[in-house]
Amino acid sequence: MELEEEFQEAKKWVEKSFDLNVNGEASLFEVNIRYIGGLLAAYYLTGEEVFKSKALELGEKLLPAFNTPTGIPRGVINLGSGMSWSWGWASAGSSILAEFGTLHLEFLHLSELSGNPVFAEKVMNIRKVLNRVEKPQGLYPNFLSPVTGNWVQHHVSIGGLGDSFYEYLIKSWLMSDKKDSEAKKMYDDALEAIEKHLVKKSAGGLTYIAEWRGGILDHKMGHLACFSGGMIALGAEHAGQERKQHYMDLATEITNTCHESYARSDTKLGPEAFRFDAGTEAMATRLSERYYILRPEVVESYMYMWRLTHDPKYRQWGWEVVKALEKHCRVEAGFSGIRDVYTTTPTHDNMQQSFFLAETLKYLYLLFCEDDVLSLDDWVFNTEAHPLPVNHTNFKASVQ
Ligand code: DMJ
């Protein structure tokens, strides 16, 4: 974006002030997707060694979390002491699918850059455990015990707790230059089960992806689940001829539903979750779900849909978001989340999440760029929108 000065300033901060020995609680998943992903992307885009060495140093610090009977990592780690434990809120000491299932892309690059296979081995082992365990109706529940390797609860969601696991399957295949056929098969099978059991159409004709609790459907879609329009479109591009149109239609319908969740609010920004029950369609019904914290998933899907179809409506929809952000979220020091999307005078939550810069603004920027800016043929975006190169040549450590 030609922000040269800002880049130099940030680089200096990474060199001088980025403390990797913090004696406190860090999320393995967040450190990986935000920090390691960000450092790797900065390295690949600039070739500056400091980003590579910090990424590798940080990667090493995450390894103790994998010392469990199954090798499924625990969710929380103290970067100073190397101690790790499970989230207090996760049932029975379990690990979260979207957390341990969202390491693959970055860890393959860590092995590639360091020549040390340990990172690739850790994530290939996660895949092995997942392939071994029985899946109810072919679905992947969100909680798995790192001790026994069994599911702890049968809650399935393509939104929070599950989301980026599915994303990393298709992107692992793409990043391997379509050689990692195991990841592709896992993605295809998972999507087939999701479509069979979770995809529904509302009375008003809106397609949505429900959540599944031990066989019972919760007719709710989280904002987080709205990334799936883009993911399904990306996968559709590479599906067999007869499935391609089908998945493109599904992606179009889901993205349309997510747009409706924005269009039906007073601010033209979408709520944290919206429901399809008791006469409600694509709107939040609970007070606690009416907030918007600058999340990217809806514009993320607009960006993929634009790049893959060039239907101008996706740019129009993106521009509606730009205007709504300016109107309701811009504050003196930056941008802020809002507490209620259904009022024209929302109050601010005084927080600018880092994914607003990393993802929301980046996807909006890319939506209005030429297709060859970070082309989808050469880059995959990690789940925090940090671009990682497709391995067009050959990854030594990766897919074996
Ligand atoms: C981001 O940190 C990532 O996209 C993650 O996968 C889930 N969603 C948040 C932003 O909403």
Task: Please outline what is shown here.
Disulfide bonds join 226-258. The chain is built from 13 helices and 17 strands.
Structure overview:
This protein is mostly helical. It is 46% helix and 11% strand. It contains 13 helices and 17 strands. It has a 3-stranded antiparallel β-sheet with strand order 1-2-3. It has a 3-stranded antiparallel β-sheet with strand order 4-5-6. Strands 7-10-11 form a 3-stranded antiparallel β-sheet, with no helix packed on it. It is globular. The two termini are 37 Å apart. The site of 1-deoxymannojirimycin has 9 residues, from helix 7 and helix 13. Its EC number is 3.2.1.-. It comes from Buteo japonicus. Keywords: Calcium, Disulfide bond, Glycosidase, Hydrolase, Membrane, Metal-binding, Signal-anchor, Transmembrane.
